[in-house]
Design a protein that fits this description.
The complex is a heterodimer of chains A (359) and B (333). By secondary structure, chain A is of the alpha/beta class. In chain A, strands 3-4-2-5-1-6-7-8 form an eight-stranded mixed β-sheet, sandwiched between helices. Chain B is α/β, with parallel strands linked by helices and 333 residues long. Chain B has a single domain, classed as 3-Layer(aba) Sandwich (Rossmann fold). Helix content of chain B is 52%, strand content 12%. Chain B has an eight-stranded mixed β-sheet, with helices on both faces. In chain B, strand 6, helix 9 and strand 7 form a beta-alpha-beta unit. Classes of the chains: A alpha/beta (359), B alpha/beta (333). Chains A and B meet through helix 6, helix 9, helix 10, helix 11 and helix 13 of A and helix 4, helix 5, helix 9 and helix 11 of B.
Chain lengths: 359, 333
């Protein structure tokens, strides 16, 4: 069938063998639904599965029961041999947990959590949400409670935000300015280089003196935790590059979404990460033999023929737009999800999607 | 015919003259950039000069005018002024780093500006002051508006989610009363966003469940949190039911020799179209009910890529929608 490409395994083999599935793609293509469907498929195969959702649509979140208790796996009851858990990512909460883990004393943790710069960090430093999704993934894998963890990713405009997220955060925390800002408190201000003084003055002038105080306070409070954070980020990076981690590129059949998916797959390839599967969502159906418009149809049916031809044209254009992407990620299997009458927002919809993708 | 065109021009002209800045926002994949291009094209046909500002890389706005190159900080002409009295369309990109360097240079800090960016200090600053990037970018837009850089400035905003942060961070910064001299910049931006004679936000959506829900949510958030003035909502890919689908294929085929699988396929296709249209109509109606903003319904185009010809078609469709939108707003002279 559609997913049975030679050499690249099948969608079913992904959910039966892999330990981690990362679903990537642009916003609005149904990534959350696809992630949940993969986890459900694994549970149907008897595995203990957990799906990490990021910003799910409310109705889907309700039907998965993840909203009341963010950041904690909640079991989704259903008639399958395995177990299905779902979790809604709480970026800030995940970061707070990390701080508690790596702080040497409770006082140090409180000092960081109360700092204004820290409070802004999750919202303002791009890539933080992505990193926390990966961090959560790592935590769930390490817990040993699940055979497979499927993670939905934030609607990233830039693929690099996701793949570079661990590096980006550590770079921020180990910033050269970080050292520069710490110096004045450790030694006399005179010991600080002229260039650094100029930078600090500039910063105060443009951004206000309290900004500099916040930053100094943050980096002071953080002192001594860099090593732990760096090690942790390294572990997350290793997990992301592990052969048991599968990247699934999700797209809708719309040309702009396909273009972004292609860009993303290219970025994965640049890092020697293979696209393990491509899922094309919301595909228009073909009608009749779909090949060419019927000829010699009598006049009363002209409108009906024109309608069918137009719809088949849409389907053909869609196929044309993702055929190149499918070739690009070959031999990765391609899963096709038809355009349903209604968006998938409950367990029944997920089951139906799983039927289509995994048979 | 001539009369009709004159009238379209007048209405569209009124529409395009309502504010100097239009910020086009919407969820990814709804055709936001295409609509920004169509608005620009439409305004240019009324003789107005237009400047399109792109905030994210690779938006494809140049492609919508039949050009291939990427945009940079320098302006590019996408369409000449001239034939038939059309206005010029220019475009440029503004990134937060560009805006920050320019801001620093304007404040006499040319010497260190590059170093601030390259040393990563900018990351720390923008974390210490969330929204500084957005405020600086919008501050630059405000400056262009003040300079009257064009009759109409069309901003292709980041995809919603991010767009909400983008448009509300200035008011957040003003309320927090932090950020030193940046605060006045933020206050200027808040003033711009709050004045419908200067700036309005046009949300683009699709007639589907999720995009409509998100649009409604975004609209209220923008108004409540950002004090942003909203223009009409553009509902993209809203197609009328094609003619000839009123009766079933079986009925239509009575007395002909069409039968079997072809007949079944025709009926299947008919039902599919009617179902899709039903969903679309229902969502348009829900949007109207839950979000009291005028709507501009724009049809989808049966093409894979949007070039100059398609942008022109969409600009016409948009103009038609504008005409339906404000018949009473334009005195019949």
């Amino acid at each position: 069938m559609s997913q049975g490409a030679v050499g690249g395994g099948t969608l079913a083999s992904l959910v039966s063998e892999r330990a981690v599935i990362v679903c990537c793609g642009s916003g609005g293509v149904g990534k959350t639904t696809v992630s949940a469907t993969f986890a459900l498929a694994a549970a149907r195969l008897g595995r203990r599965a957990c799906v990490v959702t990021v910003d799910p649509a409310r109705r889907l979140a309700d039907s998965l029961g993840v909203q009341s208790l963010p950041n904690t796996p909640t079991e989704v009851e259903g008639d399958w041999p395995g177990r299905l858990h779902a979790l809604m990512l709480d970026t800030k909460g995940t970061f707070d947990d990390l701080i508690h883990t790596y702080a040497r004393t409770p006082e140090q943790a409180e000092g960081i959590l109360g700092n204004r710069l820290y409070q802004n960090l999750t919202g303002a430093l791009s890539g933080t949400q992505e990193y926390m999704a990966m961090e959560k993934l790592h935590e769930l894998v390490e817990s040993g409670e699940f055979d497979i963890v499927v993670v939905d990713t934030p609607p990233t405009r830039n693929a690099l935000d996701l793949l570079d997220a661990p590096r980006r955060l550590t770079r921020f925390l180990e910033n050269r300015l970080f050292r520069a800002l710490l110096l004045p408190t450790r030694m006399s201000l005179r010991a600080v280089g002229l260039a650094t003084q100029a930078l600090l003055r500039t910063l105060s002038k443009v951004a206000g003196a309290e900004i500099v105080q916040d930053a100094v306070g943050f980096f002071q409070a953080f002192e001594g935790m860099e090593e732990g954070f760096r090690t942790r980020a390294g572990a997350v990076r290793t997990l992301l590059a592990d052969p048991s981690t599968a990247y699934v590129v999700v797209t809708s059949a719309r040309p702009d979404a396909v273009a972004e998916a292609s860009y993303f797959a290219g970025k994965l390839a640049e890092r020697q990460l293979a696209t393990a599967a491509l899922v094309v969502n919301r595909i228009h159906p073909r009608f009749g033999d779909g090949a060419r418009p019927p000829t010699g149809v009598p006049e009363p049916l002209a409108g009906l023929v024109a309608n069918m031809t137009a719809l088949n044209d849409v389907a053909r254009r869609e196929e044309g737009s993702y055929a190149a992407l499918a070739a690009q990620v070959a031999p990765a299997p391609v899963g096709r999800i038809p355009l349903f009458g209604e968006d998938v927002h409950d367990l029944i919809g997920l089951q139906r999607t799983a039927d289509v993708l995994f048979g | 015919m001539l009369h009709r065109y004159a009238r379209v021009d007048m209405d569209v002209g009124t529409f395009c003259a309502q504010s100097r800045v239009l910020i086009v926002a919407g969820k990814g994949g709804v055709g936001k950039t295409t609509m920004a291009a169509a608005i620009a094209r439409m305004a240019s046909t009324t003789g107005r000069s237009v400047l399109i500002i792109e905030l994210e890389g690779k938006s494809g706005i140049t492609g919508a005018f039949g050009l291939a190159h990427d945009l940079g900080y320098e302006e590019v002409e996408l369409q000449e002024a001239g034939p038939g009295g059309q206005g010029a369309v220019r475009a440029r990109r503004i990134t937060p780093d560009d805006a920050l360097v320019e801001y620093l240079e304007d404040h006499g800090l040319r010497r260190v500006s590059k170093r601030l960016v390259s040393s990563g200090v900018v990351d720390v600053v923008s974390t210490a002051i969330p929204g500084i990037r957005d405020v600086l970018v919008l501050g630059k837009v405000k400056q262009l508006e003040r300079e009257e850089a064009a009759d109409l400035i069309v901003v292709d905003a980041p995809a919603t989610g991010h767009a909400i942060t983008f448009l509300t961070s200035a008011s957040g910064m003003v309320n927090a009363a932090r950020g030193g001299p940046l605060r006045s910049q933020a206050a200027d931006v808040v003033e711009l966003l709050g004045d419908p004679a200067r700036c309005r936000v046009v949300l683009v959506t699709l007639p589907e469940d999720m995009p409509v829900s998100e649009t409604i949510e975004s609209a209220f958030t923008l108004e409540d949190k950002g004090g942003v003035q909203l223009g009409p909502v553009i509902v993209n890919a809203t197609d009328p039911v094609p003619e000839g689908l009123e009766v079933s294929a079986q009925e239509a085929a009575a007395g002909t020799d069409v039968k079997g699988s072809l007949l079944a396929a025709l009926e299947e296709a008919r039902l599919f179209r009617l179902e899709r249209h039903g969903i679309s109509a229902h969502q348009v109606e829900r949007l109207a009910r839950e979000l009291p903003l005028p709507q501009l319904l724009v049809p989808s185009l049966p093409v894979e890529t949007i070039g100059a010809v398609e942008t022109d078609l969409l600009a016409h469709a948009l103009a038609e929608a504008v005409l339906r939108l404000v018949p009473e707003a334009v005195p019949d002279r």
